[in-house]
């Protein structure tokens, strides 16, 4: 008897996919967006959706499960971490005092990811709030080459860094989800 769940996918058209193409909200019909800024924002949106898709259908215990010991990483921890990171990115482009951390000391975003529905709800609310605030701050700077704040980070660099962060963590989410219930796919 193995504790490893059997691998499975909801997809019926291509068995290595997370969802059938007609059911995948990330797949849009037609050509991609025009322009650098729209393209970067489209990729960011897609990775944000991917993270949510990898978490959907799980209860609080499954979301908080640390699937790859000794790591403290969990799907819920990833949601909390990305909320924290969105807030931190605003600190990079702000001239004011840095915003305080959402979850406290280093790794508290993962360490505090406990299997309680209230914690899950709070994590999703924080992620949505922080994403919206960072998006709004960057919307004031539509030129990707504009340099912001004292460190002079370019809007382009920040957007690429955000895409990179979500992409890496979506890869982690793939492995974490497969350990939780065996579900696989892009």
Automatic annotation (TrEMBL):
Positions of the UniProt region annotated as Disordered: 1-32
Transmembrane segments: none
InterPro entries for the chain: DinB/YfiT-like, MST-like
Highest taxon of the lineage: Bacteria
Name of the molecule in the record: DinB family protein
Species name: Streptomyces jumonjinensis
């Amino acid at each position: 008897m193995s504790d490893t769940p059997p691998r499975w996918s909801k997809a019926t058209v291509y068995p290595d996919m997370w969802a059938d193409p007609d059911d995948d909200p990330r797949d849009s019909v037609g050509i991609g967006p025009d322009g650098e800024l729209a393209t970067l924002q489209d990729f960011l949106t897609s990775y944000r959706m991917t993270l949510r898709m990898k978490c959907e259908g799980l209860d609080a215990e499954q979301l908080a499960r640390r699937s790859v010991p000794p790591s403290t990483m969990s799907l819920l921890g990833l949601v909390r971490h990305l909320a924290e990171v969105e807030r931190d990115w605003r600190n990079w482009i702000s001239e004011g005092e840095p915003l305080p951390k959402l979850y406290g000391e280093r790794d508290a975003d993962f360490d505090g990811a406990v299997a309680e529905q209230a914690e899950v709800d709070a994590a999703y609310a924080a992620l949505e709030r922080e994403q919206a605030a960072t998006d709004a701050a960057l919307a004031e700077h539509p030129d990707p080459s504009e340099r912001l704040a004292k460190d002079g980070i370019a809007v382009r660099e920040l957007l690429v860094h955000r895409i990179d962060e979500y992409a890496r963590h979506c890869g982690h989410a793939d492995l974490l989800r497969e350990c939780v219930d065996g579900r696989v796919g892009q």
